[in-house]
Each structure stands twice: as C-alpha cells, then as structure tokens.
Amino acid sequence: MEEEAAGLLKVIIVQGKNLAIRDFTSSDPYVVVKVGNQSAKTKVINSCLNPVWNEELIFSLKEPLGILNLEVFDRDRFKSDDKMGHAFLDLQPLLSASKLKRALQLTSGETKLRKVAPDCDNCLLASSCITYVNGEIVMDACLRLCDVESGELYVTIKWIDHPSSAAAPVKKA
User: Fold this and answer.
1) pLDDT per residue over 16-51, tens digit each?
2) CA 11, 139, 56 angle in degrees (round to 5)?
3) pTM for the complete prediction?
C-alpha cells in the first residue's frame, strides 16, 4: 500500500511579468513544470510579455519532496523554442507544513503554518507564507527567472493529502 500516491501537488501558473523579448518585439510564452519524472506545460499565450495563464497543473506524488522546476519558453513556429528563463523551488517546506498540519490535527479553517524566505534553495523574490486553507496546504510564490535578462513568474502551489484510507481515484480539475 505504500506505493500509492500520498497526495496531489497542484501547481497553478498564475502569470508572468516583464518576460524577455525573444521575437522581434514580443514573445509567445509557455511554462513547462517538472516534478521528479513528471512534467506538464501550460498553453501558449501569443505576443505577450505579461501573460496571465491561471492554469492548474496536477501531479500525483508519494510526498511533496524534491524540487519544483519551472521553465519558460518562447514558442517558435519554424525553429526550436527559445528559452526565456527558469526558476525552482524546494518542496521541503511543504512537506514540513504537511507534517505540522497533521500534528496540529487541523481539519478546517485557515492557519498560517510557516514562512519561507528567499535563499539558495528557491528563486523567491520575497518571503512566502505556507497556509492551511480548508484541507489544502497553500503557498503563493513570486519567483525570479534565472539565466535571462528579465522576468518573474507568479505561482500558487497546493498540497492535498489523500485521506489515510484508500486513495480516491485522481480526478483532473
């Protein structure tokens, strides 16, 4: 039974700001998200340096461990897509917040569990709070894109524990 997923990691790609120009005057950005050996990508938003995706990508995981990798690309029709920067976030703080939630036996309401400061394990632009909100552990993060002249990525990360009984079938929202 230990092989079953312990929960769902929902990564909401909210928006990009001040992204790099990769075509003549703009870019056609999309985001690729990787967790372990799983990956998913957002839709392409044409001719936009401040795209709003509000797109939810769902990963089924044994536990929220490892590194969340985000890469932004410019879609090109006739050649390979251009890189527009990348960001990463260590998921360890989500795991410790999940353990704290269980220790506190939280079942409803809203509780701040911990704060995550910008450091070498993440690309945070500012400190971020991890909060328990009605069954979900939630972290809103603003990430600075690396290896690029400009760009920020705003994401919301949610961890939802499967009930300790048999895991329910995964439904995509």
Assistant:
1) 999 999 988 999 999 999 999 999 999 999 999 999
2) 20
3) 0.89
